[in-house]
Amino acid sequence: MSIYVAPRQSAPAPMKAGPIGSGAGVLLTEYPLQSFLGKDPAQKMRTAYAMGMSVPWIRTAERLIGSKVSTIPFILTDPEGETIDAVYASPDAVAAWALMDRPQALLGVGQPMSRSSLLRLWCRHLGLAGNAFLLLDQPEAFSGTPRALAYIRPDRMSPDEDASGNLTGWHIDRTSGRPGVAVSLEQVVQFMLEPPDSGHFGPGLVESALLMAQLSQSLDRHLASVLSAGGRLSGFLSPKTGAMQPETMAQLERDWRTITEQPDAAKRLQLIAAPIEFTHTTMTPEQIAIVDLMTLMRDDLFVAWNIPGSLVGISHSTGMNSGDSRKYDEAALWQGPVHDRLVTLQEGLQDSVLSRWQKRLGWAPELELEEPEFDDDSPRYDLLGKSINIAMRNRERRELIGLDPFGDPAIDEQVWLPATMVAAFTAVEGGTPAQQAAQPGPTGAVQQAPSDAAVSAAGETSLGKASLDGMRRTLVAIRDNMARHHTPRVREAVASVLDAQRTDIARRIREHADAIARKPRDTSAWFDAARWDRELSGALTGALSGMAVAVSGQVAASLPQAAPGKAGAATPLERVLSRGAARVTRINRATRDEVAAILADAVEAGALLADVADAIESGSDLTPLIGRSGGVVADTAYRAEMIARTELMDAYNASALYSYADAGIGMVQAIDGDGDEECAARNGRVFSVDEADSIEDHPNGTLDWVPVLGGM
Known about the structure:
Layout: E1 2-3, H1 24-29, H2 41-54, H3 56-69, E2 74-77, E3 83-84, H4 91-101, H5 115-129, E4 131-137, E5 148-152, E6 157-161, E7 167-172, E8 181-183, E9 188-192, H6 205-208, H7 210-228, E10 235-239, H8 246-260, E11 276-280, H9 285-288, H10 290-305, H11 329-352, H12 358-361, E12 366-369, H13 377-386, H14 394-400, H15 409-412, H16 433-437, E13 439-440, E14 446-447, H17 452-457, H18 465-485, H19 487-511, H20 513-518, H21 529-558, H22 572-605, H23 609-618, H24 623-626, H25 636-662, E15 667-671, H26 677-682, E16 686-688, H27 689-694, E17 704-708
Parallel strand pairs: 1-10
Antiparallel strand pairs: 2-3, 2-12, 4-5, 4-9, 6-7, 7-8, 10-11, 13-14, 15-16, 15-17
Helix pairs in contact: 2-3, 3-5, 3-10, 3-11, 7-10, 13-21, 18-21, 19-21, 19-23, 19-25, 21-22, 21-25, 22-25
């Protein structure tokens, strides 16, 4: 704050003193924007690091990307596609896997970092500065394969050039007074987020978003300064009329300085026995629209880093038709900034590190980074569900989800529509509800509608008996149609997976027979759980999705919907697919446990593991080798049929129960026939939806659930 002093002499001639107006303070006190980074690449990168730590939105973006990159799983394979791991037959190949798994475990100096810590640091520098470097530590003399990967901060690197400007090598920590350490191009791996237009360093994201980052910092500093001053803004203080006496002015000036220099100045009050006028020389936060500007800078920075705001806790207003947009934000992150950096990482490690194993092995291990796969089929099945009330041929409906026609014109050309609207009664003009319900029946006798008490006692309401019957007929038709037309295809797909699984297990048993003989219960040498979960899920997902969409759409069209639930709640389709993934894991776990038991019995019986592998691969009876048959690995055709029928039926019941719950249904009745004691005991009983969801039918079961409308 300034104190206005009345002039005692004539004013001097006007002259230009400097910039005025909003932003003058920044122009007078900050670095010029065009020279902030400087021209030296090392200085640019150090400034980028500082901006990445001091600008919270850049820090947030880099932490989000780094958390994905640093935890990415990897697979190393040989030319035959076999996974290289700790028990692989070749020690040289195991050395390559160990380097990728723990790149600094054998580092010769300093504190080694874990793989995730190293990748997080590598990722942050690659994003902020556009460059990252790895030094191949302790290279093997013949092939140059390193024992460890040391990280070098990119601003420490200085390029060496020939007369034509071509890169010939690097120096670490070279300054004007110190030569640094020379390293050859073969000793260093340089990673660039983008190639440079000139020079040897790629541009970083901070360099591209410098102005936005600086404005974000300036806004933060300005707001902090205003708050620390108790909300006071600078300006001129002067009497409204006339001029103060010198003594009064001097005393007032001393008092104001005393107040403003105190840490609790905002709490103090000054009384002045004269009209005083205060003239602002700065804009208020409202006039600057500082909140809007800070939001704009934040969003612009996230756009520069290609980060969806919803993944960092920022919610944006969306339209009524954008309910699915958040489902794709995670995919956008992985397929955008994370994927770009993983490609840079994979190519650099493959071309500059793993390729050196060619001399040692005669082939180079292949590095695969396991990025998550995002199922793009859900929107297509959503579209199919929305078209359920439109008259379309079956082949046209199948075309919506990318499936070929059945091949039978009698089926392909049929038009199916929901059949849930049936006659309930004839409404008499002006009649009472009782008169409307009491209409002649088929025999001519008047049929009285049951009382509400009777209907409630029967577990229903007078609202929708006919609607319920029609809905169940349609659901049963959906189930039977899926069983008739989809079970054969699902069975074939599952059988293919089981056969491939059996073959792969047998091959791995032969290759790791010695390790298995020592630890027959150790499944890591012969069973790849993640792979088989993916394969079996792929064989089942299409049919499970189709069942879930058809059933949930029919229930939604037949029952009155309850009040909307929580925003972002999982749909029946999503819950069925999640349930199916868990069941797939259980199926594969059963296979793994059965094979582990077979191998343990074989080792105990002294049988040759090669013979056991042959029997498993061919599905032969294992009784001559271990004294019992092969269990779940023996007859894959029968097991594939059972899995197809059981999983389709489970998806049917699960999607029905989830849809009933979404419609506010609380109770359901079991329809299970009397084919066995378990089914007969359950048939006709009423359960809560949660209890029903916990009841698992036996393989090839026929359990069905119908809603009890009185439980709404």
